[in-house]
Specification:
695 residues; mainly beta; Maltoporin, Chain A; 22-stranded antiparallel β-barrel; six-stranded mixed β-sheet; 37 strands
């Protein structure tokens, strides 16, 4: 507590200091750069000392679908668990948990969370459409401390900016591809008087790789209006999403009765009737008020309605793992989420002790009400049935956060604190043991960022920050009546530490860092009991670079821009205590490498050759069953794989753009995802081509 008191005293310094009107320097990405590695602060947030990667999606050929393999090509350590019909984003980082539904990473759109419930049920059945986004940002270290929970950091999807007197522009695009893929991305941007607006619609649909039940569609709409009035910017945004995806189940690795074996017939579905439907609507209102040249205040309120519906056939006589399910009954789940939230952020630049400093603080009021209904259907494809379970769930939180960037010449120090007050209730009204749970947690989290600017283009940085994994509703009351929760269960915590050297010049970008993460009280199900299963360490090295070859070699300049990028993550992760001692955490490959070339010629052509080289790893913490390298394959081993994509945009004239690409160029048969029902096949070689009309 003494440390907290000292930090609070330090944060009070701005009120005693003489404020100046000088704004601090913000380091932006260099022109023509695919990647950016740091900004000191932006808007009302401080990034000094944090490991922060920003990928400019405009610098690569336009994404036609949610291809995270390409969008994350400049982000070392971020692992993507691929789903053939892109039903949801599945992301994890440095082996810090199952990537399913990105459960251990916080996803944001323009700074606002998109999870079902970022505390009680942090599943991401919705994530923004990558073809609609302008930039992809990833902040390491306990959800960046300034945003909220989750040990795996924060991903922020950044929309195209709206600015005053915005030039009117429109586009219509249509893309077709393998497995009857059809995608369209249409937009209208412009301004009228004090208003600047953006309207964008994206849809993708297709049949998927299986002959039955892998079909899908997803609709996204985003409507925004910014009103510029003197020192105020008023922001209104609506985001809508509607989707229906088939879930075809997984494959087994060995033959058996009623089993679908990987490699025998990849077009055959193990589950012929399972569906996932998600509907989401969110409305946000914000005002950014420039108090003066040194102070900014931003207030946001938003509400959302979210519906997740699934129907899943019972397995019958088939094995769970890779079985061809054959029961004549199913389970239907209807989960709804209604949120009303508010947030205030404040940033002040001030002068003290003959140096310029920055103070930032904020408050988040987060509320979620979630009724859950489970039904039993009398047919394998029943849409409704008899109600067997009904549960009411609620989350109410207050979060307070502060940071202060102190400057001492070229050295900068940024202490931070976040205090979470989390109140969760869950009430079983039908089914199970009719259990109730009411829990309140107060969680203080500390962080410290350091940076030393060697010159205007490079710096040494270090960061240490606490994070936690809040108890979910399932940890409070399991979905099965025979499962219980240990009386002494605690929220999981991590301590993230990192030190690195990064820089940006006209010829090269680089970021080299070493990290060490301590994960305590990890929650797992042991037998039928949810409990804290132990602790582990995750340590390693991240290295990333982008070489602007046309700037380095003058003879290449007449040919256009040619950039080479490469990054690698070296990871040594292991459980050090508990019943999983000496096991390797799930989705923690020793090596993960991304490499590629990006060519552009003024406004005429853009071509990218992108590759991912993934090391062998496991899809569960117990490291699977069977023996590696024998005739009894390990069910949960994911072998190493290399996948290469070739994509391009061709500007036919000022109005028309032709896009074409080949994903999985060399037709690698692989998988990056294994669930309890089997191996999920990643897409083989597939093609796309499309036209965009701009006017």
């Amino acid at each position: 507590m003494k440390f907290i008191g000292i930090i609070l005293f330090i944060f009070s310094l701005p009120s005693f200091a003489q404020m100046t009107l000088d704004s601090i320097q913000v380091v932006e990405e260099k022109e023509g750069s695919f990647s950016g590695y740091w900004e000191e602060n932006k808007g009302t947030q401080i990034f000094s000392g944090k490991k922060n990667t920003i990928t400019d999606l405009k610098e690569i050929p336009k994404l036609q679908t949610n291809n995270y393999r390409q969008a994350t090509s400049q982000t070392p350590g971020l692992l993507i668990s691929e789903i053939p019909n892109e039903s949801l984003a599945a992301i994890t980082y440095r082996g810090l948990g199952d990537p399913h539904e990105s459960y251990n990473v916080l996803l944001l759109q323009d700074g606002l969370p998109v999870a079902s419930d970022m505390y009680g049920y942090p599943a991401h059945y919705f994530s923004p459409a990558l073809p609609m986004m302008d930039k992809f940002q990833f902040i390491r270290g306990g959800a960046g401390l300034i945003y909220g929970p989750q040990p795996g950091g924060v991903v922020n999807y950044i929309s195209s900016p709206l600015y005053k007197n915005q030039t009117k522009s429109s586009k219509l695009s249509l893309t077709g591809g393998s497995y009857n893929l059809l995608a369209t991305n249409n937009s209208l941007y412009g301004s009228k008087g004090d208003h600047s607006y953006g309207i964008e619609y994206y849809r993708r649909q297709g049949d998927g790789p299986q002959t039955v039940n892998s079909d899908f569609f997803a609709d996204y709409v985003q409507i925004r209006d910014h009103i510029f009035k003197n020192k105020n910017t008023f922001k209104i945004a609506f985001n809508g999403y509607n989707s229906d995806h088939g879930e075809t189940g997984g494959f087994a690795k060995t033959a058996g009765l009623n089993v679908n074996v990987f490699g025998d017939n990849l077009g055959r579905a193990s589950k012929r009737h399972d569906r996932l439907k998600v509907h989401r609507a969110q409305l946000s209102l914000a005002v950014e008020h420039r108090l003066d040249e040194a102070q900014t205040l931003e207030a946001t309120i938003w509400g959302n309605a979210y519906n997740r519906y699934s129907k899943r056939q019972d397995k019958g006589t088939a094995p769970t793992f890779g079985g061809i399910y054959n029961a004549s009954t199913n389970v239907i789940a209807d989960q709804r989420y209604f949120g009303y939230n508010g947030q205030i952020r404040y940033l002040k630049n001030y002068s003290a002790f003959n140096e310029d400093h920055t103070f930032s603080a904020g408050y988040l009021y987060y509320n979620l009400i979630s009724p859950f209904v489970q039904e039993s259907g009398i047919k394998a494809d029943a849409n409704h049935g008899t109600v067997t379970r009904r549960t009411d769930r609620e989350t109410h939180t207050h979060s307070y956060f502060m940071e202060n960037r102190f400057s001492f010449g070229n050295f900068m120090m940024t202490p931070g604190i976040r205090i979470e007050n989390i109140h969760q209730t869950i009430n079983e009204r039908k089914g199970g043991a009719l259990r109730e749970k009411d829990n309140t947690d107060n969680v203080p989290l500390l962080g410290l960022g350091l940076s030393y600017h060697l010159d205007e283009e490079s710096q040494i940085y270090a960061n240490i920050s606490e994070a936690y994994k809040a108890l979910s509703w399932a940890d409070a009351i399991p979905s099965s009546a025979v499962e219980t929760v240990a009386s002494d269960i605690k929220a999981a915590k991590t301590l993230n530490s990192e030190i690195g050297y990064r820089g940006q010049t006209d010829k090269i970008n680089w970021d080299l860092s070493a990290f060490f993460i301590r994960y305590e009280n990890k929650i797992a199900k042991v037998g039928t009991v949810y409990q804290n299963s132990g602790a582990g360490t995750h340590k390693g090295i991240d290295a990333a670079t982008e070489l602007k070859l046309s700037q380095i070699f003058s003879k290449l300049k007449p040919l256009g821009g040619l950039n080479f990028y490469a990054n690698i993550s070296l990871l040594d992760a292991k459980y050090t205590r508990g019943n999983l001692k000496n096991k390797i955490p799930q989705y923690a490959p020793n090596t993960m490498t991304r490499v590629g070339l990006i060519y552009s010629k003024e406004n005429q052509i853009k071509v990218a050759l992108m590759g991912v080289i993934m090391g062998r790893h496991f899809a569960d913490d117990n490291n699977g069953n069977g023996t590696i390298g024998t005739n009894n394959p390990n069910d949960f081993e994911i072998p190493s794989y290399t996948v290469i994509d070739l994509t391009s945009d061709w500007n036919l004239n000022k109005d028309w753009v032709l896009s074409a690409g080949i994903n999985n160029l060399f037709n690698k048969q692989y998988y990056s995802r294994i669930r309890s029902d089997g191996v999920i096949w990643a897409l083989d070689r597939n093609y796309y081509a499309g036209l965009t009309y701009k006017f």
